[in-house]
Amino acid sequence: MSKITGKVWNFGANIDTDVIIAARYLNSSDPDHLAKYVMEDADPDFSNKLKKGDIIVAGENFGCGSSREHAPIALKAAGIAAVVAPSFARIFYRNAFNMGLPIFELPESMEIKEGEEISIDLDSGTIVNNSTKKSYKFIAIPPFMQELIASGGLINYAKEEMKVK
């Protein structure tokens, strides 16, 4: 997975984990169940409009609030290919990588508008807005975090490591 291309959905700053997946749905940790309700409190019809491979572009501090792992699980299960924002809450940042959800820090993220298509090139460290042809450099992802994404998350990474030994 060296390139991710998808349609953009915009959300503002300070999107907390309760907006990503509301607490009322946390009676299950089944990814398919959670996917049905992703971002429901921000847009009640979001999960029906969303297509596999779409990308969320948001404002600063995405994933703030409680430290539930359900938030990146719900996004990934719903088909979100990546999240782009100027900054992420630290616990969400780590949970996203642990669950295998690619996230990218881009200070200019809000220049990218809903409905536009972007391509994220992990090898070159760039995001290209295919609609406007503008190119951006995202903040580099540490090599170990790249390995987690390539493995599909921490559990898969650990399983692969166990096979090597």
UniProtKB/TrEMBL annotation:
Under the heading Pfam families, the entry gives: Aconitase_C (PF00694)
Q: Which CDD domains match?
A: IPMI_Swivel (cd01577)
Query: Which organism encodes this protein?
Result: Aliarcobacter thereius
Q: Which residues form the Aconitase A/isopropylmalate dehydratase small subunit swivel domain?
A: 48-101
The role this protein plays is: Catalyzes the isomerization between 2-isopropylmalate and 3-isopropylmalate, via the formation of 2-isopropylmaleate.
- Could you list the residue ranges forming a coiled coil in this record? none
Name under which the protein is recorded = 3-isopropylmalate dehydratase small subunit
UniProt KW keywords: Amino-acid biosynthesis, Branched-chain amino acid biosynthesis, Leucine biosynthesis, Lyase
The enzyme class is: lyase
Q: Name one GO biological process term.
A: L-leucine biosynthetic process
Q: How does it assemble?
A: Heterodimer of LeuC and LeuD.
The family database entries (InterPro entries) matched by this protein are listed as: Aconitase/3IPM_dehydase_swvl, AconitaseA/IPMdHydase_ssu_swvl, IPMI_Swivel, LeuD, LeuD_type2/HacB/DmdB
**What is stated as this protein's family in its record?**
Belongs to the LeuD family. LeuD type 2 subfamily.
User: Which is one GO molecular function term here?
Assistant: 3-isopropylmalate dehydratase activity
Report the EC code(s) recorded for this entry.
4.2.1.33
> What catalytic reaction does the record list?
(2R,3S)-3-isopropylmalate = (2S)-2-isopropylmalate
This protein's pathway reads: Amino-acid biosynthesis; L-leucine biosynthesis; L-leucine from 3-methyl-2-oxobutanoate: step 2/4
